[in-house]
């Protein structure tokens, strides 16, 4: 079974530039997550989709970050304009979601490593 | 709010010795607990989880974890450490904020180094 796919793996940009990351979840997984992991910290949730709807974006800095999952499958996370503090690993993850069933395992991709200079 | 704490930033163990990576949790309701491992320049890999049932959970690569409700702990263990176990380990707790909608809240991570 294929895992969560992410691209690009590495990106270096200058501050105030824009960047986009792409994610394709595990086939059949309705829930998709974007996490941000700053060096030395645990991952922090940015946004969660269930199918093509947003269920939690409370931690997403909406003045510069945006994300979409138009057809309920793959997703794009965009940063514009980037700041130095956005340097981090952006982890996409997915899980099965079934109303009434919880504790589903969340599977992560390899991450997209962003350096803002 | 749910939270987990990993009290040790760094753990060093000699190869062949047993290892323990500590995690304590704070939740309202039943705890659903997870361990993930992160190798250098890689994403997070799922190791094991506790949902219900037996307090000793077995996972990938020979790891196991013991759920202790009275001590609110979920320590990760392995009987005999390998050099290849050297990595960053994260404990996480499920935050169920709406039925069917859940996310993981992570600890700050513990760097495990196995010394040959």
Summarize, please.
Chain A is mainly beta and 117 residues long. Chain A has strands at 5-7, 10-13, 19-24, 31-37, 44-50, 53-56, 65-68, 75-79, 88-95, 107-108, 112-116.
Q: Key features?
A:
heterodimer, A: 117 residues, mainly beta, four-stranded antiparallel beta sheet, 11 strands, 47% strand, B: mainly beta, six-stranded mixed beta sheet, 12 strands
Secondary-structure map:
The complex is a heterodimer of chains A (117) and B (116).
Chain A: E1 5-7, E2 10-13, E3 19-24, E4 31-37, E5 44-50, E6 53-56, E7 65-68, E8 75-79, E9 88-95, E10 107-108, E11 112-116
Parallel strand pairs in A: 2-11
Antiparallel strand pairs in A: 1-3, 3-8, 4-5, 4-9, 5-6, 7-8, 9-10, 9-11
Chain B: E1 3-5, E2 10-14, E3 19-21, E4 24-26, E5 33-38, E6 44-50, E7 56-58, E8 64-68, E9 73-78, E10 87-98, E11 101-106, E12 110-115
Parallel strand pairs in B: 2-12
Antiparallel strand pairs in B: 1-4, 3-9, 5-6, 5-10, 7-8, 8-9, 10-11, 10-12
Oligomeric state of the chains present here: heterodimer
Report the average pLDDT across residues of chain B.
93
Tell how many strands the DSSP assignment of chain B holds.
12
Specify the structural class of chain B. Answer: mainly beta
What Rg of chain A do the Cα atoms give?
14 Å
Indicate the mean pLDDT of chain A.
92
In N-to-C order, the SSE pattern of chain B is EEEEEEEEEEEE
Shape of chain B: globular
Helix tally of chain A equals 0
Measured distance between first and last alpha carbons of chain B: 40 Å
Q: Which segments of chain A are poorly predicted (pLDDT under 50) over 5 or more consecutive residues? A: none
* Residues in β-strands, percent of chain B: over 45%
Instruction: Assign an overall shape of chain A.
Output: globular
Please mark out the parts of chain B with pLDDT under 50 across 5 or more consecutive residues, or reply none. Answer: none
Q: Strand share of the residues of chain A?
A: over 45%
- The share of residues in helices of chain A is under 10%
Described by strand count, sense and barrel closure, the largest sheet of chain A is: 7 strands, mixed
């Amino acid at each position: 079974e294929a895992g969560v796919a992410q691209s690009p793996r590495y990106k270096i940009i200058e501050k105030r530039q824009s960047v986009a990351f792409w994610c394709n979840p595990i086939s059949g997984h309705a829930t998709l997550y974007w996490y941000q992991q700053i060096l030395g910290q645990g991952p922090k949730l940015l946004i969660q989709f269930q199918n093509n709807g947003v269920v939690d974006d409370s931690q997403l800095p909406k003045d510069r970050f945006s994300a979409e999952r138009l057809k309920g499958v793959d997703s794009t996370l965009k940063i514009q304009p980037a700041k130095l503090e956005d340097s981090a690993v952006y982890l996409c993850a997915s899980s099965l979601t079934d109303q009434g069933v919880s504790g589903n395992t969340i599977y992560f991709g390899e991450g997209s490593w962003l350096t803002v200079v | 709010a749910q939270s987990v704490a990993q009290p040790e930033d760094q753990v060093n163990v000699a190869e062949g010795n047993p290892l323990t990576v500590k995690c304590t949790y704070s939740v309202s309701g039943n705890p659903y607990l997870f361990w993930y491992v992160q190798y250098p320049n890689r994403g997070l890999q799922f190791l094991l989880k506790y949902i219900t049932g037996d307090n000793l959970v077995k996972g990938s690569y020979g790891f196991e974890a013991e759920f202790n409700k009275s001590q609110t702990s979920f320590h990760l263990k392995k009987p005999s450490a390998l050099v290849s176990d050297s990595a960053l380990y994260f404990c996480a707790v499920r935050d169920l904020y709406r039925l069917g909608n859940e996310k993981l809240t992570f600890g700050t991570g513990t760097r495990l180094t196995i010394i040959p």
